[in-house]
């Protein structure tokens, strides 16, 4: 890794989930050296780092498997000490189940966790006090499967994508209520611009539409958060699952690619990069089925976790060159999933 990009990262750590590990592995952000691995009880999905408590939160929605192909839904979160890398607590959310998306309001000490619905209630978002690690309540999203969740920069509004509903749910976090629905095809990942003015939503979701049905064109719906209307679409060649915005507003998009024809298998995916004003900068080939994105705090390095190849591509976001590729251990067909960048303690 070039010295100019490496500089200042000593002591920082990249944490990566392996779905079928089932583990969280830790890597030196300056040298990519493997620092250790923590084994978990079941198949983890997403990670969220709390820099105030120095804790790493991990969601595990299912006992095994994935959305629509699982052996049952779990109701707990795993909490790890970010520095010792040990599990410190399992937080039980029952009767809630299927926890997935994680969003942190560090200033207010609140963690928001998306959970799946059931026969007697819609999906929603559970609110957790990060100091006590205890649930405080839940906010309904009026959709069966809210998947990913993000917060406005001021911590007053939350947005949830929904695989099984044609809208993004908007919630008032102070009142704890659903306030609006923004019409989009069933959606995957989402991200906010740093100023909170634009919401980027990956839609349609990968499974939308039966064989032979007309399917909406893939792309990123750009939503004006002031009007709560779709202002435009950033087109992509293939279906997108994850999106991520860096500190300077650069938009990272993970495109999933398959061999042509019915039943075509996964081929290497693509990281597509847009400037903050929506212009396509370019991109590069990454691992199979990119499912998670993150970036360094200065926005100079991007990380692409691909569950199909169980790899993490580390990308210089200035030159759009791959700096390194991490191989994440797995015990099944799928591997690398959620990630978190952990700045060193100061």
Key attributes of the depicted protein:
four-stranded antiparallel beta sheet, Methylamine Dehydrogenase, Chain H, mainly beta, 346 residues, globular
Task: Give structural notes.
The structure is a single chain. This protein has 346 residues and is mostly beta strands. The protein has a single domain (13-207, 218-342), classed as YVTN repeat-like/Quinoprotein amine dehydrogenase (Methylamine Dehydrogenase, Chain H, 7 Propeller). It has one helix at 3-6; strands at 13-18, 23-28, 34-39, 46-50, 55-59, 65-66, 69-70, 76-81, 87-92, 102-105, 110-115, 124-129, 134-140, 146-151, 157-162, 167-172, 177-183, 190-192, 198-203, 219-224, 229-235, 240-245, 251-258, 266-274, 280-288, 290-295, 301-306, 311-316, 321-327, 336-342. The chain has a 4-stranded antiparallel β-sheet, with no helix packed on it. A hairpin with a 2-residue loop joins strand 6 (65-66) and strand 7. The radius of gyration is 19 Å and the shape is globular. Mean pLDDT is 93; it is low at 208-212.
**Number of H/I helices:** 1
Q: Largest sheet, if any?
A: 4 strands, antiparallel
**Poorly predicted runs:** 208-212
Task: Let me know the CATH homologous superfamily.
Answer: YVTN repeat-like/Quinoprotein amine dehydrogenase
Strand content: over 45%
The tally of strands reads 30
What is the CATH domain class? Answer: Mainly Beta
Tell me the radius of gyration: 19 Å
Classify the fold: give the CATH topology: Methylamine Dehydrogenase, Chain H
Helix fraction, binned, reads under 10%
User: What is the averaged pLDDT score?
Assistant: 93
Domain count, please report it. 1
Envelope shape: globular
Neighbour order of strands in the largest sheet: 3-2-1-30
> Which class do the helix and strand fractions yield?
mainly beta
Distance between the termini: 24 Å
Identify the CATH architecture. 7 Propeller
